[in-house]
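Hey Z.,

So I finally got round to the adenosine monophosphate thing we talked about over coffee. Here's the setup:
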Amino acid sequence: MTPILPGATLGVLGSGQLGRMFALAARRMGYRVHTFSPDTDTPTGQVADMEVVANYDDLDAVRAFAQNVQVVTFEFENVPAATAQAVAEIVPVRPGGHVLHVAQNRLREKTWLAQAGLPHTPFRHITSLAELEAALRDLGCPAILKTAGFGYDGKGQVRIQTPGEASAAWQELGGQECVLEAFVPFEREVSVVATRGQDGAFVHYGVIQNAHANGILDVSLAPPELGAGGADAVEIARAILDGLDVVGVLCVEFFVTGDGRLLVNELAPRPHNSGHLTIDACVCSQFEQQLRAVCGLPLGSTERLRPAAMANLLGDLWQGGEPNWAAALARPDIKLHLYGKEEARPGRKMGHLTALADTPSEAERRVRQAREALTRR
Ligand code: AMP
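And the result:
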C-alpha cells in the first residue's frame, strides 16, 4: 500500500470542530484539505483549502468532491451510508462505510457489542409502546429511552423514572425505532481514544476521565485519578478497533460501576471531544493520528508529556456578552481553542481550554478556574 504523502489533498465529510482540528493538523504537515457539508463559513471550511457546500444526498456533488481528493475521512458519523458508498467508488473512505454503519445507529452498535461478547449496558430493541412497557418490566426503572439513529450529546433520549411515564417518553421521541437502556448508576465515566493503522498497528492514549453536565461532556482529564480498570478498557478498545477493522481513530466511552466493572456506552469512529487534550499534552494529537492512519503512514507517539485537563466552552458562556478572554489568558499556562462559530447557542460547543500541570487534579483546578474567569466582567 502506497502511503498518501504531504502535498496530497484529503477530503473531510462534515465541517465542524473535529474537521477543523484535523485540517489544522493536516495543513501543518503540508497536506491540502477539502471539506464537504451543507453549511457555509464552517469551522472546518475556515481553515480548509476548499469548502464544498452541498447536501449529503447530492451524490453528483459527492462524486465531484471525491474526484479532487486522494482519500476521504469524516468528522461526523451521521453521514448517510449512500454518501460514503458514492465516495468509496472513487477513493478510499477511512474508516470504511461498514464502521459508519455500525456506529451511527445505537441498536446496531449495541447488537455488534453483544455479538462480540463485549461488556455493554443492558438494552432492548423498541418499536412500539407495548414493547417499551414490556422492556421496562424486564429492565426495571429508572431507564433511558434513546432513538436508534442520529443521537449525540444526550440528544434524542428521555429518562423514564416510573413505568407510568412510558407513553409520554414514547411520544416525546416521536414513536421512532429506539433502544431502551437500563440506567447505570455509574461511579464515573471514562473513554479510550485509539487509532488503528492500515497494517493493523494499534496505539492509544490510555484512559481519560470524563465528567458530563446535561448529557454533554464538560471536563476531561488524563491520566485518570483512580487508576483501576485501565488495562481492561484499553483491551476492550483494541478488540473493538480490530473487530470492526477500523483504519482511523475510534473513541470508546465507558461507564465504570461502583464494583469496578466497565460497560461500553458508546462508540465514536473519529477523534472525540475527550481526546482534545491530546493536542496540547501529547507528542502526536488524535487528529495527527487520524491523518497518519487514513494516509497509511506509521502511527505517531501517544506519549503524554504532562498530566492535562480540558474544559469545554459551551455557548451558554456567551449569555452575558463576549467572554472575558483576557482574564482566562492572563494565566500563561492556559491554551485556548475556539472553533470559529458565529452563533453562541446554549449547549453548542464553541471551543475548549486545556491546562497542563504536575498532577491531573491540579490541571483540572486550573482549567476550571480559567473557565470561571471567562464570565467575570
Ligand atoms: P450518550 O449520548 O448516550 O453518550 O449519553 C450522554 C450521557 O448521558 C452519558 O455520558 C451519561 O452521562 C448519560 N447516560 C446515557 N446513558 C445512560 C445510562 N444507560 N445510564 C446512566 N447514564 C446514562
